[in-house]
Amino acid sequence: MKIATWNINGVKARIENLCQWLKESAPDIACLQEIKSVDEGFPRLEIEALGYHVETHGQKGFNGVALLSKVKADEVMRGLPGDDTDEQARFIEGVYSTTSGVVRVASLYLPNGNPPDDPVKYPYKLAWMERLRQFAEARLAFEEPFILAGDYNVIPEPFDCHDPRVWAGDALFLPQTREAFRRLENLGLTDALRATNDAAKVYTFWDYQAGAWQKNNGIRIDHLMLSPEAARGLQSVAVEKHVRGWEKPSDHVPVAGYFNF
User: What is the pLDDT of residue 224?
Assistant: First the structure.
């Protein structure tokens, strides 16, 4: 089973790239972030024509997440629990039947948090991360394959960015951010890529500015975090970097995990 995550950075602007990628990469489940579309405006017909079921949690103009799957979800939950006042569309979870049981897959778009001295944005990021930790802790009690996939807007370690000095004061790399990410990991979740690849200069995002892509000045912020049951089924992880070189690319690339379940 192939499960992938990709911050598409506007599904309508990238629909041709998305369809090309679905044909080429053929994930069983694709988790999208930043679809930047309301549910009724999502280009589902083009995707359904490729054999995918579509579940969205959209928002006009920004944010928004989606699940595309070759098998229809048994259950879908929209929105991260823990704050009934939070109207930002950043989380969707689907439950899918497999040959050996079920797998839970969530697509998440964690808040950016910049600028860190903003009285709202950075506290919202940290509060969202704590809600995610609490949610993950509850899901882990089910003792079943569970994957939290998405754009975390977190650079976990210095070697996950081209130059730590550049990112030292950024909300993606602040000590409080990385500590919150470690609290999530310490529940028993596995960073899929780092479980299979300890190389430096493995990135998933390159800014559009200053020739970042051409210089390979990237960062790793798109992650597949696995429950112990999902980690046991992990075979390999691929960063599909070539997609960044396509015409009108997203500034992120897909990250795909291959699983034996």
Answer: 98
Model confidence over 50-103: pLDDT tens digits? 999 999 999 999 999 999 999 999 999 999 999 999 999 999 999 999 988 999
Among candidate residues 28, 96, 122, 151, the one labeled active-site is 151
The yes-or-no answer on residue 109 being catalytic is: yes
Residue 195 CA to its chain's centroid (Å)? 17
Residue ranges of the domains in the chain? 2-259
State the DSSP string of 36-76: -S-GGGS-HHHHHTTT-EEEEE--SSS--EEEEESS--SEE
151 is catalytic: yes
**How does pLDDT run across 152-187, given as a tens digit for each residue?**
999 999 999 999 999 999 999 999 999 999 999 999
CB 224 within 8 A of CB 147: yes
CATH fold of 2-259: Deoxyribonuclease I; Chain A (3.60.10)
Reported confidence tier of residue 210, pLDDT bands at 50, 70, 90 = confident
